[in-house]
Amino acid sequence: MTPRPVPAAPIQRSAVVTGAARGIGRGIAELLVAQGYAVVVTDVDGEAVQATAREIGAVAGLAHDVRDPEAHRTVAEVAAGHGRLVAWFNNAGVGDDGRLSELSEEQVRRLVEVNLLGVLWGMRAALEAFGDGSGDIVNTASLSGLGPVPGYSVYAATKAATVSATMSVAAETARRVRVHAICPDGVRTAMLDEQDPEGLGAALVHSGGRILSVEEIAEAAVGLVGTGRVIRTVPVWRGALMRTISLAPGVAAKGTALFAAQGRRALRRG
Question: Which residue numbers delimit the Ketoreductase domain (predicted)?
C-alpha cells in the first residue's frame, strides 16, 4: 500500500511592528497576532516591549532605536527566523508639540530622526528583506502631514515627508511590494495625553470632533495590507478638509484662532 503524501506545513508569515510597546503599535501587533502572523514587536523601551510581547503573544520583543539603520536589519533577521517576512509597520514616532520657535534643538533633531529617518531606514530594511518576494510596508503618518498645522510645525513636517516618501517608494517598487501610509486625526494615546493641554497644537487637534481610538487606527492600518491603496486618511472627511486647506494656507491661517477656540472649549468639556 502506497503511503499517502503528508501535506506540507503552511509557511509561517512574519511581521514587524516598531514602536509597539503601547498605543497604535501595540494595537496593530495584537491584530496581526490574532490573524496568525508571527509578530516581532520593537520599541526603544526594551523592558516595556518585552512585556507587551508576552502579553499579546508576539514571538519576540526587541529593544530598537529606529534612528540606527543597522538595528532595522537585525530586526528583519529576527523576523525572518520566525517565517517569511511579509509585513513591516513603521509606527515608531515622537510627538513633541510646539511652534518652531519654542522647540529646542534637541527636540527638532529627535523629531526628524525618529519620525522621518526611522521610517526611511525601516522601509529600506523591509525592502531588502522582502527580496524578490511580496510584502507590505505600512507607515504611520498623520493628517497633520497633509496641510498646515500651527503648533505642530516640525512634527507635521516629518509626517508630510513620510507621506511624500511613501508615495515615491510605492512608485519605485516592484508590483508585488505595496507601500502605504495611514494618516489619522488625533488618537487617544499616551503621546497625545503627554502634550501641553494649553498649547495651540492640542487645541487644534481637539477642534475636529471625536478623538479616535487606538483600535480604529490599528484596524485601518492592518486593513491596508494586500491592497493597492497608498494613502488612507481617518476619518476620510477630515483628510479631504486638510487637503483643501493646503491649497490656500494663507486663508487657513486666518481661521486658526477660530479652530483653536473651538478645541479649547472641547478640552474644557473633558
Answer: 13-187
